[in-house]
Design goal:
112 residues; alpha+beta; 3-stranded antiparallel β-sheet; 4 helices; 22% strand; L-rhamnose mutarotase; Rham/fucose_mutarotase; Dimeric_a/b-barrel
């Protein structure tokens, strides 16, 4: 059962520091409960991450991506998580920009 308007679907690309693959996957095996709560309260419905070598591909379904980033920027559950991610990622996300994700080029239309 869905509630409200359809979520935004945002694709993201991040890159790991060499040698951090196993550690990144280990850290993501179970995220802190307070981060899970913060993400959901910020409107995140799903967040999936795929890895190919050092490249990470994320698909986020969220009510409002810009509002989510604003809500999480200084959130006490997200700040330490982002500090931990900064140890693993080639470029850290400091939530300061107007990130909109990767632009959609094409998708298979839904047939009804």
């Amino acid at each position: 059962m869905t509630h409200g308007p359809a979520p935004q679907r945002v694709a993201l690309h991040t890159r790991l520091k060499p040698g951090k693959e196993a550690e990144y996957e280990s850290v993501h095996a179970v995220i802190p409960p307070e981060l899970d709560t913060a993400l959901r309260e910020a409107g995140v419905r799903t967040w999936r991450i795929w890895r190919n070598g050092l490249d990470l591909f994320h698909v986020v379904e969220v009510d409002d991506y810009a509002a989510m980033r604003a809500a999480l920027r200084d959130h006490p559950a997200n700040v330490p998580w982002q500090a931990r991610m900064a140890e693993l990622l080639a470029v850290e996300d400091d939530y300061s920009g107007d990130d909109t994700g990767i632009g959609l080029v094409w998708e298979l239309p839904v047939k009804e």
